[in-house]
Amino acid sequence: MERDSDTTNGGADRSVHEPVLAAEVVRALGGEEPAALEGWIVDATLGAGGHASRLLAALPNVRLLGLDQDPQILQYALRALAPFERRVRVRRGRLSQLEAILDTLNASRVVGMLFDLGASSLQLDSAVRGFSFQSDGPLDMRMDPERERTAADIVNHWDESDLADLFFYEGGETRSRRIARAIVESRRRAPFQRTLALADLIERTLGAGKLHPATRTFQALRRAVNEEGEELLAGLAAAQRWMVDGGRLAVISFHSGEDAEVKRFFVEGEQRGDWRALTRRPTTATRDEQATNRRSRSALLRVGVRVRRSSSALERRGGLA
């Protein structure tokens, strides 16, 4: 299994959460004849390798390129994919770097792509990464540690109106202006550096509820830090360029805005004759899966088939060696 040199440091032993909608993803990308499918599948949000290992097991004639921006998470993927190492390449990178990576590898037959958006359970469960409002850690939230901007930078330096807009549009927080006002007033006394300090302020501002009052604000901050909206658009552009005729794109989202963007991509693709949507409504997890995997409760899967390569796409020879 070929991999980048910066993904070889050891990781801690811990249980890895089950990937959401795994069976549905395998069925979607396997197509009508999974045993006969040949080519490359790109798991562009590899995470711990849960989806990738199931795809490799179910599709014996495909090879897989795994991409993830988080070097810590890649440690779990390398272990999970070790039994398939001759059929796997792993690269560290973001969705916005996918086209450049595919160009470098001279990919010619990409028959499937998977985007599993948002933060992984391993990131959310690690206090030191700063994603959680339930345990104390640095107010960071970077999936890629090479990004310069942290959540603390946003909270401490954006003006009140920009913070309110961020919490409303990226987090769906209807009380965003109250939270932004409280943050600006509080940071005049001391800057925010820790997750619980921010979460406690939001809870004092809004009061307790069935849903933790900091949930939507933390989601908005994470999306802004990692530029998740921009990354998704770049990933969809890569799928538009690189998928072969009949290739399938599967996108799992956990945010209504992301799901709307993916739906729009397939609708407009159908209008151009580039795509055929296989899911008019997003596929959701079964009751059994929702009962055993909390993250699956908000998961939305959309799948489309590439039916015509764009006129700007270049025909390529060769392929991934």
Description:
This protein has 321 residues and is an alpha/beta fold. The chain has helices at 22-30, 50-58, 71-80, 98-105, 121-124, 151-157, 160-171, 176-187, 195-206, 215-225, 228-242, 256-272, 287-292, and strands at residues 39-43, 62-68, 88-92, 110-116, 243-253, 275-277, 300-306. It has a 7-stranded mixed β-sheet with strand order 3-2-1-4-5-7-6, sandwiched between helices. Helix 1 crosses helix 2 (50-58), helix 7 (160-171) packs across helix 8 and helix 11 packs parallel to helix 12. It is elongated. The model is unreliable at 3-15 and 310-321 (pLDDT under 50).
Which terms would index this structure?
single chain, 321 residues, Rossmann fold, seven-stranded mixed beta sheet, 13 helices, 7 strands
- In which order are the strands of the major sheet placed? 3-2-1-4-5-7-6
CATH superfamily of the largest domain: Vaccinia Virus protein VP39
Nearest-integer average pLDDT: 89
- Beta fraction: 5-15%
The sequence of SSEs as H and E is HEHEHEHEHHHHHHHEHEHE
CATH class division of the largest domain = Alpha Beta
CATH-derived architecture of the largest domain: 3-Layer(aba) Sandwich
The geometry reads as elongated
User: N- to C-terminal separation?
Assistant: 11 Å
Radius of gyration: 20 Å
- Tally the structural domains: 2
